[in-house]
Amino acid sequence: MDGFYKSTYEEDGKKYVLVSTQFEEVATRRAFPCFDEPSFKATFDVSISHSTDYTVLANTIIKDEGVGDDGLTLTQFETTPKMSTYLVAFVVSKFEARGESPGKDYIFKVYSRPEATKFMTVPTTYGTTLIDLLSSWTGINYVDLGNRQAYQVAIPDFAAGAMENWGLITFRHSAEVDLLDEAEKTSHSAKQRIITVVAHELSHQWFGDYVTLDWWSDTWLNEGFATYFEFHIPSETLPSSVPLSVEQSKINTPREDSSKFDDISYDKGGSIVRMMRYILGEQSIKDGLREYLHSNHHSNTNPSQLLSSLNQVAGGLDFVKFMENWIYQAGINCASVGRCDIIAYVNPSSADDVSFKLPNSTCNSDYISKQNFTLDNSAFSNISDTGVLHVDILKGVLIWDWACKLGQEDCINYAITTFEEYKNTNSYLSETIATNSSIRKQDASYVFRAVYSNNDVGVDVALTFLENNLQKITETYKGMSALSNLINGIADRVKTEDQINRVS
Ligand SMILES: [Zn+2]
């Protein structure tokens, strides 16, 4: 199945023969003499002589058809754009086409054996949408790449998954998995797989065909981009997302029932529950859900009962309104994260202008420049308050982390001062030898390791502590092995002559 090869398939108990091509990477030379390397680009004028009852396809649309000297039909194709040899393709078969592209300046069609043409819902529905999205994303219309033809062909006996021949993309057909679907029977995930493969191959028309890698050493220039776009482009507008809940009147038949046992109900459903837990907090959501179970016992519910129970524990937030669009609105939401004063905020946005409310979206200002970023010192006192919620501490750590990474002066000064204090007081290490310490003796070495293994300064801190408290450490640790392990651990990390002298 390399080069120009013969293939067969059966329909109605009869065997049919077709010929097709697979040239990537080095099989074009097996079909015709050429400099078969990607950097040698040329235009190709393809003519195929064939029996009248066969359909012939090549990279470009048919220019002319006539009768050759041998009495066979001679089909001539338009000159191809300038391209690499591995992208040349032709197919001679009894295939039939489906797919229309009215209003487009290119011709989109899907070809397969006649019996399989009823399985083309996915590629014919989404093919032109994907091409238009790629045209818009790259700023180069498909037709401006240099080819008016965008054909997809399902080939039996095809070794590769699919091949991005310019204008004549070939797909594996044997299992009917990569291009063809049975509308009623094909699973949602199998349809997604088809869209992904079609998007991948169409992306190659820009990344690979129009602009081609110089040599196979840089294959990622083709495949890396096609793989990126196979996920990115379908996610732009295709209906891979549906609402979590729909109106009850829309679900009537058993088939409609089972359609709701999809990834959205399972995965998005689980994510939404998790999101609600983080918005409300562990205790509140427990309280709310206990109320929900209690007040609806032996009964039936819809989301409004759930939200009404959770609303009671939402601490003033209109939880019903807040969750409405998460539950009843389709769309793929993405969030841009920025900062406003010291509060991190999340701005909801989505490709289809669907907005999703987010708990911290209180600040609507655009990204605030580093210079304008001021850190309110009161944030620190809040964080050191042992009474604050765990989540506030985490949020505080995050704010510190961002502020210091962004070079916020207050934060850096605070970090330096705190670190100096820490070095001088050694309160963390002192805890290991304190009477009634909360650190268990067997864990003391972990505390030391945490101090000396993080950075060079830590070695000095641990050494100083060891020198100043040797007696107490020996008494506390009792056995010598714990002490020798501790000294060995520090000794492994000493770097300066001074440190060596101190250890010895
Ligand atoms: Zn590819």
Automatic annotation (TrEMBL):
The active site is at E201 (proton acceptor). Zn(2+) binds at H200, H204, E223. Keywords: Glycoprotein, GPI-anchor, Hydrolase, Lipoprotein, Membrane, Metal-binding, Metalloprotease, Protease, Zinc. One of its GO terms (molecular function) is zinc ion binding. GO terms for cellular component: cytoplasm; extracellular space; plasma membrane; side of membrane. It holds the Pfam family ERAP1_C. Its cofactor is Zn(2+). SUPFAM superfamilies: Leukotriene A4 hydrolase N-terminal domain, Metalloproteases ('zincins'), catalytic domain. Residues 1-87 form the Aminopeptidase N-like N-terminal domain. GO terms for biological process: peptide catabolic process; proteolysis. Residues 428-503 form the ERAP1-like C-terminal domain. The record marks Y266 as: Transition state stabilizer. Belongs to the peptidase M1 family. PANTHER family: AMINOPEPTIDASE, PROTEASE M1 ZINC METALLOPROTEASE. This is Uncharacterized protein. It comes from Rhamnusium bicolor. The lineage of its organism: Eukaryota, Metazoa, Ecdysozoa, Arthropoda, Hexapoda.
